[in-house]
């Protein structure tokens, strides 16, 4: 009999899992989605200019090679409609329970008790397996600046864009200068009367060679046999062969630094502004911004880059160490609570072990997928599976394939859990590879905890990740019974 599966989240990960189950003839699953639509981050991030800096043909499922992309780099509406198309084509939409938030998942008596809320209506259902597809960037982080509540104008986070608020003729402050800010600033600058960009730390920026696919290119992708596959493979290999080595410490990052500095010099003629925008940490330590219209927007007469520290928000605007800036709109492009992973969901495994307690020193999971003491629970886009150089959709597909082979294994064995020795070997591999990468350097980023542990990124090549996730699960997993002793919390590294 097929296991029953609760999938939490209807973004790229959750949808991929649902589609793979459907295609395997397993219909005993439910997708829980707290919002009223699917798409996850691509539903939430609808700010002007939102898009992806990974090319369309790679930022899509390998089994649904979409031929209708209009641009080399997809914009948010097109990605969202691709996901809608996938949900309909593979008939998973009817399995999604929208406006239903899972707040608790408890492993009890050999099965998962999943408690969800649809409005005030609470419901607890039993499943053999839970698959967490909530992503890493789903909870906006508002800045902890004093006085936010005193502001008399309109303020919102980039991932909660207020589309009813017309920016025409407004004096706008954008706090933050990461990838989201870089995409929205050029669009906001076109509308606003004046724009202040509050930059705490500059980012390395490289150009985004975007282009529209003309009618001929689109016809070719559709009808020339193998073209789509070859193009996708080429983009993948380029990212793997060129960008991944650039994120390691040492000389291999030099071409990237040179490229970014050339881009800065070619787009920003003013030396004073250039100095403000030049980072003082190695490229890649924070997520590199890939954008060609960010710098030109910052050189406009009606845009000002403010690097003085923000002291507080007042009723009338932003006050810095150098004085006040009067604005009527504040956009917080201040990122996400990325290292908290499944929070605020309460997750309890064997013996009532809470995931929060187990992850007190930072989140970790075997292959980013499985957690000791939490049998039959699988994470998609979990700890240490984010990339700074290639498509997350590739990683998600590797994870879903792994979960599918685990499902086949547990169907014959009952609940399974990752073996302690597999977990220990994974930690060793991760730590050794992480030490070579640039992320642990002297910069603050959403890749790491306040203590400096990189919990979000995968340090190896994605080809290795595919190989590791493709191994048969019986080597790394074992059947467990409820009464077994728990694995210790945290492990000295
Ligand atoms: P982010 O990279 O975490 O950037 C947040 C920005 O807000 C940073 O500039 C940060 O400054 C600033 N900030 C935070 N708190 C602040 C405070 N209290 N005072 C002043 N400044 C503050 O977030 P994001 O731009 O939303 O991007 C998150 C990730 O989403 C990206 O790295 C990327 O992986 C993904 N994304 C991808 C795309 C794409 O094209 N694929 C597009 C958008 C987003 P500090 O640097 O000093 O901390």
From TrEMBL:
Presence of the UniProt keyword Iron in the record: no
Keyword annotations: FAD, Flavoprotein, Oxidoreductase
Protein's name in the database: NAD(P)/FAD-dependent oxidoreductase
Gene Ontology molecular function: flavin adenine dinucleotide binding; N,N-dimethylaniline monooxygenase activity; NADP binding
SUPFAM superfamilies (UniProt xref): FAD/NAD(P)-binding domain (SSF51905)
Domain of life: Bacteria
InterPro entries per the UniProt record, alphabetical: FAD-bind_Monooxygenase_sf, FAD/NAD-bd_sf, Flavin_mOase-like
Coiled-coil stretches: none
Organism: Nonomuraea cypriaca
Protein family (similarity comment): Belongs to the FAD-binding monooxygenase family.
């Amino acid at each position: 009999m097929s296991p029953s599966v609760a999938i939490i989240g209807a973004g790229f990960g959750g949808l991929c899992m649902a589609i793979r189950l459907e295609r395997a003839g397993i219909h005993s699953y439910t997708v829980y989605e707290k919002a009223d639509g699917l798409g996850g981050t691509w539903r939430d991030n609808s700010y002007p200019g939102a898009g992806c800096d990974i090319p369309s043909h790679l930022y899509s499922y390998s089994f649904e090679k979409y031929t209708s992309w209009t641009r080399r780099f997809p914009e948010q509406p097109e990605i969202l409609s691709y996901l809608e198309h996938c949900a309909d084509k593979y008939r998973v939409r009817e399995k999604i329970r929208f406006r239903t938030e899972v707040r608790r998942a408890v492993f009890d008596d050999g099965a998962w008790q999943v408690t969800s809320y649809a409005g005030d209506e609470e419901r607890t259902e039993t499943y053999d397996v839970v698959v967490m597809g909530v992503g890493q960037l789903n909870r906006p982080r508002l800045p902890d600046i004093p006085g936010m509540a005193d502001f008399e104008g309109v303020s919102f986070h980039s991932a909660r864009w207020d589309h009813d608020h017309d920016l025409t003729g407004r004096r706008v402050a954008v706090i933050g200068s990461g990838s989201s800010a870089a995409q929205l600033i050029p669009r906001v600058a076109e509308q606003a009367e004046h724009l202040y960009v509050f930059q705490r730390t500059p980012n390395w920026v490289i150009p985004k060679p975007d282009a529209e696919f003309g009618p001929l290119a689109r016809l070719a992708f559709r009808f020339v046999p193998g073209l789509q596959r070859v193009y996708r493979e080429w983009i993948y290999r380029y990212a793997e062969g060129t960008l991944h080595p650039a994120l390691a410490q040492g000389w291999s990052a030099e071409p990237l630094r040179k490229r970014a500095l050339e881009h800065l010099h070619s787009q920003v003629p003013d030396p004073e502004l250039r100095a403000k925008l030049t980072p003082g940490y190695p490229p890649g330590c924070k997520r590199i911004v890939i954008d060609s219209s960010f710098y030109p927007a910052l050189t406009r007469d009606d845009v000002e880059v403010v690097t003085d520290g923000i002291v507080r928000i007042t009723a009338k605007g932003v006050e810095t160490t150098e004085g006040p800036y009067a604005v009527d709109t504040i956009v917080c492009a201040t990122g996400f609570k990325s290292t908290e992973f499944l929070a605020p969901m309460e997750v309890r495994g064997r013996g009532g072990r809470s995931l929060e307690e187990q992850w007190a020193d930072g989140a970790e999971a075997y292959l980013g997928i499985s957690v000791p003491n939490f049998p039959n629970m699988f994470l998609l886009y979990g700890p240490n599976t984010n990339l700074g150089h290639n498509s997350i959709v590739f990683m998600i597909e590797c994870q879903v394939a792994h979960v599918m082979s685990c499902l086949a294994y547990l169907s014959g064995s009952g609940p399974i859990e990752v073996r302690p020795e597999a977990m220990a070997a994974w930690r060793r591999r991760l730590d050794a590879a992480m030490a070579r990468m640039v992320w642990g350097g002297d910069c603050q980023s959403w890749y790491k905890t306040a203590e400096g542990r990189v919990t979000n990124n995968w340090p190896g090549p994605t080809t290795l990740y595919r190989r590791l996730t493709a191994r048969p699960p019986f080597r790394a997993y074992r059947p467990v019974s409820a009464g077994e002793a728990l694995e210790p919390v945290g492990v000295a590294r």
